[in-house]
Amino acid sequence: MSGYGVRDLRVRYGGRTAVDGVTLDVPAGTIAALVGGDGAGKSSVLRALAGAVAPAGGSVQRPEATVIGYMPAGEAVYRDLTVEENLAFSARAYGVRGAEVARRAGELLERTGLTAARGRLGGQLSGGMRQKLALAMALLHEPELLVLDEPTTGIDPVSRAQLWRLIAGAAAAGAAVVLATSYVDEAERAATVVVLSEGRVLLAGPPEEVMAGTPGAVVDSAARLDPVASWRRGARWRTWSPDGTVPPGAERAEPDLEDSVVVAELALLRHQAEEVAA
Amino acid sequence: MWAMVQKEFRQLRRDRRTVAMMIVMPLVLLVVFGYAASFDVTEIKTVVVGPDAPAVAERLREPFVVDRVEPQQDREDAVATLRDGRAQVAIVTGGQPQALVDGADLFAARAAVTAFRQAAAQAGASVPEPEVLFNPGLETSVIMVPAIVGVILAFVGVVATSLGVVRERQAGTLEQLAVMPFRPTDVFVGKVLPYFLIAAIDLTVITVVGNTLFDVPFRGSVLTLALGAALFLFVTLGLGVLISTVSQNQGQAIQLAFMTLLPQILLSGMIFPLHSMAAGVRWIGYVLPLTYFIQVSRGVMVRGTPIEALALPLTMLAVLGLAVFGLSLVRFRRDLAPAGRARPRAAEASGTVAAGAR
Q1: From the list B339, B347, B358, which residue is nearest A95 (CB)?
Q2: Which member of A134, A149, A221, B139 has the lowest number of beta carbons within 10 Å of its beta carbon?
Q3: Residues of chain B found within 8 Å of residue A65, distances taken between Cβ atoms
Q4: If you classify domain A4-205 with CATH, what class do you get?
């Protein structure tokens, strides 16, 4: 394993296994995205990687705490501190001192569009602004490993673009970035995508490889062709054809990452159903 | 409406601690406090000094219980005995007998004054008029203000601290702190120290206001009271953090905090004298920190008790502090060092840390 990451990671909460055998490798200067539904284990992988939870098995490779930037799920900022005070606390906690604090904080405020809100309390910010502030706090000390749990969830498209510029900038500056996202289109920007389901890896690899490895065929149609294997994409429907045949009224579509993730979930369900039947 | 009722019951069913507190605790409190609620003083610990001490001690009847007879000692020794809280009444013999009463032990003092006056009415001039020391007017405020100092310190220590930590957990910032390059002790001390300072300001303000508005004396050493307060805060702040580590939300923290404050107020000797309580509940008072802080604060402020005579309550506060603080630190560390890694200071060189499963 080069860079940072986890190998054969297991995370348990009491008697419940949240993550089972996940491996993730994040070289410096790249972005890895964890994708999956609710309860898939994304946050648990990130928490173990950042050091917020002890693994029950496997190994975690991370730098020491001074060079980890962590943004937990939710808006983990101090609501009774101003934007500037939140940043100052984060700077001090990570050992950033003197004029460097003002320089980095000013730059991040500018890039997150929070300059005008620098004197406002965290509790007086909108949800999106708090997300930006939390990301700025995670970035302030220029970490080697940046761990972000759903940094863009609940954010308007313009702010999402702003946050992504920051995240991509951190990676370009040499940080290893791992983020969880519910937006599959965002994951396509990552160098590596790991799709999780029920705590296990469903798919992993560069987005183009994941998409190329989609089994069977994905077809596009105006109407829903199957009650289970069809999903809506805008005004149209996509359907997974496991044997690659194209049904009447449909045409073969080039699957994107979202299609590949849906197909992987459907394939898993099909496999589980076959096991039960057997 | 029934939808609301059903929802509330479902939520309550999953919050067993609250249900237990609402059903079981009132019963326990009723029984405990029922046995504790007594102002009756049936025994008054008495020391008799002076050349005629043995003979006078022989003649003393209930409620006076002779603890020591010291023919070699004089009035000065008797005052010192009361000042140090070793007796509630001292009778000085030789010449005109004198009855000295510790006014800082209010209910025992009132009972003693009443007993002396009844005896004088029956026996005439041979019974001396009691002289109440330290609190001559037998003012309630004089003994309550030093105790209220303790309650306020306990309130700040337990309630404010526990809420402060639980708020971090609920906001998700505690998890961030766990990942930051802080040692658990850094977070612990950083979290507790501001409350310690606020409590110290409270202590000063209450003492000055008590002295100004209620004429509560301050006869002893400021340093002794400061030491007692620091040790007491050591316990209560630790208790606050301990409560925060077992509370999922601020509501639970407040409930638990009050469950620790209520017994302290009722069983510490603040309201009901400890020696008037049934033996079955009195021992509870002896494991509560407020009991010992009140002994220190009343001793220092009202009697002017020197530090040597307060060694026992000060030691007990230190022991309780070590136990509670130690336990809370262990539990707090579990929250803040889940990955079992050392958190180096920011100034140290960076490197790679491999964390394997344990």
Answers
A1: B347
A2: B139
A3: 179-181, 341, 343-344
A4: alpha beta
